[in-house]
Each structure stands twice: as C-alpha cells, then as structure tokens.
Amino acid sequence: MSWPQAPELARPRVLRQRWLDLSFIHWAVEPARVAQYFPAGTRPDTFGGRTYVGLVPFRMVMFRSFLETNVRLYSVDATGRRGVVFLSLDTNWLPLVAGSRSTLGIPYRWARMQHNQDGGWHTYTSTLRWPRIKASSTIETQVGDRIELGPLEHFLTARWGLHLSKAGRTWYMPNEHPPWVLHRAELMTFEDHGLLASVGLGDLGSRPPDHVAFSTGVPARFGLPRGPVLR
C-alpha cells in the first residue's frame, strides 16, 4: 500500500531533528486501560478496537547526538488530528530535560544511557537519574528484512504531531518527516526494572509485545504549538 505523506508544515518551522536507529516496540491494550493518561480534549486513537502503548529507544541528533527512550500513547482530538502523547522521555542530555519541561511541559527525565550496535543487533541500556523514581532497562533487538508497510504500521508511525499539556491547556505541536522505511525486528531481551511501572504500566512487560519493528531513521521538523485543543 502507498505510504501517507505528512501535511505541509506551516511556517515558522522552529526545530530540526534527526531520529536514528529506532526500535519500535508496541503492546495492544484496551482503550479504557490508558484513557486516564490523555490530555483534555483528546482520546485514545484505536486500530481494530484497541489502542497501543509504544516503547521506543533511539538516537537523536539536535545540535548534538544523544540518546532517548520514550513511552508513548496514540491520540486523536475532536478535529481528527492524530498524534502522540508521551508518558515519559528519558535522555542522557540534561539541558534538553530542563528546557523541554519548562517551555513545553514535555515529561523528559535525565538518565544514564548507552546504545551499541553489532551488525543487526542493537542494545539500548538506561538507568534513570531522577528524584524519587528508580528505573532501569535493557532492550536488545535483532533487525531483519524490510517490511511491506501495512495499515498497522501506518497507524503506529505515520503521526505528524504530539498532544501536550501546558498551563492547564492542551496543545498540538505539528511535525513533518519523510515516509518511514521499516524493518522486521525481534525483541531478544527486555529487562524492565521499573521503567513501565514508573508511568503506571508495569504489567505490560509481563507479556511479549504485539508488534516490533526497526528503522534506521528520518529527519524531522517541528512547527509552533497550535491550540489550545477544545474539549
């Protein structure tokens, strides 16, 4: 099937990033299971009657190279804009944590992290360095052949914005990026010592994920937040 293209991003375009070496790990859940985590004016977006929780470790380049692991949900608002809601974003670049939390309310947390690659084998480790929360993880994925894109891959990764809460209101921050090239991947190791529990989803790690994929990455650009989103 053809891959959807990002809507044209209105100016000004305020931020450029590169997302690299991403492992997409997803669990399907009932929408009611996670509905409490969505900002006002948004709700869980669904595929086949269920929504998804994503765990995505990767490398990012924005002024410099650093690492990130995020736990994310999939949202839609009353205007039909489909986006991402981040429950946590752990990174080893401390200035990003302070800047993103204060200006946009994005829940970044500081962590000690590593990423190693050996052929198609990727290992991501993280130990949170955050007040009153103990969490660490080791994630290993083995990358395989390129995937023929289908409706589920579209649902999970063709999202050009995020819904975020700031100053008691919900905003939509748009982005654009080229179509993803995805590869089949297998989750070889997932040692979760409090990562999912730290965002209220500790039971997910007790079962295998429902979808795993990998991408070498895409460039991305962001526009100014739009809103507020109406209830």
Question: What do these coordinates show?
Answer:
This protein is 10% helix and 54% strand. The protein has 231 residues and is mainly beta. Strands 1-3-4-5-6-7-8-11-12 form a nine-stranded mixed beta barrel. A hairpin with a 2-residue loop joins strand 6 and strand 7. The longest helix is centred in the middle third of the chain and has 11 residues. The model has no long low-confidence stretch (mean pLDDT 94). It comes from Kribbella koreensis.
SSE layout and pairing:
Layout: E1 13-29, H1 31-34, E2 42-44, E3 51-62, E4 64-77, E5 82-91, H2 94-104, E6 108-118, E7 121-128, E8 136-146, H3 151-157, E9 161-166, E10 169-176, E11 183-193, E12 211-223
Parallel strand pairs: 5-6
Antiparallel strand pairs: 1-3, 1-12, 2-4, 3-4, 4-5, 6-7, 7-8, 8-11, 9-10, 10-12, 11-12
Provide a quick synopsis of the model.
Helix content is 10%, strand content 54%. The chain is mostly beta strands and 231 residues long. A nine-stranded mixed β-barrel has the order 1-3-4-5-6-7-8-11-12.
